[in-house]
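During the reporting period the student researcher (J.K.) took over the structure-prediction task from the postdoctoral fellow and processed the backlog of single-chain submissions. One of the processed entries is reproduced below for the supervisory committee.
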Amino acid sequence: QKILRHIKELAEKLYKNENPYPAVTMHKVQKPTEGCHLRLHQKPFPRLDEGTVQWIIDQATAKLQTAPPAVKAEKKCMVPSGPPIAAIMERNGNALANSARRLEVVRNCITYVFENKMLEAKKLFPAVLRAMKGRAARHCLTQELNLHVQQNRAVLDHQQFDFIIRMMNCCLQDCTAMDEHGIAAALLPLVTAFCRKLGPGITQFAYSCVQEHV
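J.K. obtained the following structure tokens:
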């Protein structure tokens, strides 16, 4: 058991020595060919003199102790100046302005739908569908629709119903797994509220048109 433990310790040290870091590429050493150990010209490994080996180790240790500490010379260099802060602020400002415009388009389109201004809503509709790619616009849609539900404006005519369903479908289509407990969850009460009358005593709710989404 003692011998096995010692062999294991040596094996671990040898392995760590051969594989210091997984990222470092090691030089490939060619394997000896088959039957090379049977060749006559191969000399046996000579016996090492313990005293000589110890003397070499002592010499190296003494050198290391007297050697001055290695100090890495500082290399000075110029750091190039980046873009001015004003340009960064301007870029961020443009992005925020674009985002605000998109949300404004979504709000306006929903307002036009509920006010039965279908021509204006139709003009803005492609821009609204494009805006649904952004999370903020999807969130804005749920908020706006929720306001109309609270105002008891959930019963729609056929054209209004069609517009709202298309918006909801587009919103859910662009939802990711991250939106499952946010946007999709916010739409759940809305799809059970918005509806249209198909005939006497027959009501179709929005969920029947959007329930195929994952």
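The committee noted the following: Residues 85-208 form one domain.
J.K. will present the remaining backlog at the next meeting.
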